[in-house]
Write a structure and sequence with these properties.
This protein is an all-alpha fold and 269 residues long. It contains 10 helices and no strands.
């Protein structure tokens, strides 16, 4: 069985649900209508444009074009991480920490994914780009949440951290509880997704493949592979980012260096 085609009428039916929700928000004065409608419009436009571009990229089979697409995805993901940070490290360090951690974790996951799938050719665009997209998006979230929580936690727990340092703890021990809290925050989304998979929800990839006619068991295997790749890469990226952040927010003499964190007032240092 092949997946039924979706025409403009089908999309319009789904859009009516969003419009109805926006109308309810307006009636109840909840302030959600504008954001909901803008997000829905962006979803429609962006995904249709991406669909057309990817059809062209897949048809050309050009390694240079594929490399350009991958580079653009990494660049936009790095910018997105920075946009979500309430506080950033001075000197552009937040950009390098976020981008480098995300890149390293995603590359490792991609090697594992390609080794498992064994596409022919190995760098098949129709496999590489979708797989990178789903892994990269989740690693981006994990790194972003971890860094934001860590930076805010350091400011919040400054007195406790400095007390541990004064009692003789090194910087890694003094900041460990803050780092652990940041990692837990960053990994909550993927842990919840894995825990609910197959019991509470059918993940999106598996649902799409089943609708496209793939045998259910095979679709489940693909979904398991993707979730494991996402979990491993998200954890690796968050750990790497928080470890570098610990080193940057302190120095070799085991001193807390909040002066390296932008958005911190003098009274908070």
């Amino acid at each position: 069985m092949s997946a039924p085609a979706i025409g403009p009428g089908g999309l319009a039916i789904a859009a009516l649900l969003v419009l109805a929700s926006a109308a309810v928000s307006l009636v109840l004065q909840l302030g959600l209508a504008r954001g909901l409608l803008v997000a829905a419009l962006r979803t429609i436009v962006q995904l249709l444009l991406v669909g057309m571009v990817l059809e062209w990229v897949f048809a050309l089979r050009s390694p240079l074009i594929v490399a350009a697409v991958l580079a653009l995805m990494f660049t936009l993901a790095s910018r997105e991480i920075l946009s979500r940070q309430e506080r950033r490290l001075a000197g552009g360090w937040s950009r390098w920490i976020a981008g480098g951690s995300m890149l390293a974790a995603t590359v490792v996951a991609m090697f594992a994914g390609l080794a498992a799938l064994r596409p022919r050719p190995v760098l098949e665009a129709s496999v590489l780009i979708p797989l990178l997209g789903i892994v990269l998006g989740n690693v981006m979230n994990g790194v972003s949440l971890s860094l934001n929580t860590f930076h805010n936690g350091v400011v919040r727990d400054r007195l406790a951290i400095e007390a541990r340092l004064a009692l003789g703890s090194n910087r890694f021990d003094a900041l460990r509880s803050t780092q652990i809290g940041a990692l837990r925050s960053g990994l909550i989304p993927i842990l919840n997704q894995m825990s609910a998979a197959g019991v509470i929800t059918l993940p999106g990839m598996m649902t799409g493949q089943v609708l496209a006619g793939m045998p259910v068991l095979e679709a489940a295997k693909y979904q398991i592979l993707v979730l494991l790749l996402i979990a491993g890469a998200s954890c690796l990226g968050a750990i790497l980012a928080s470890w570098i952040a610990v080193r940057r927010i302190s120095d070799e003499r085991d001193r807390l260096r909040l002066d390296r964190l932008l958005g911190v007032s003098r009274s908070q240092r």
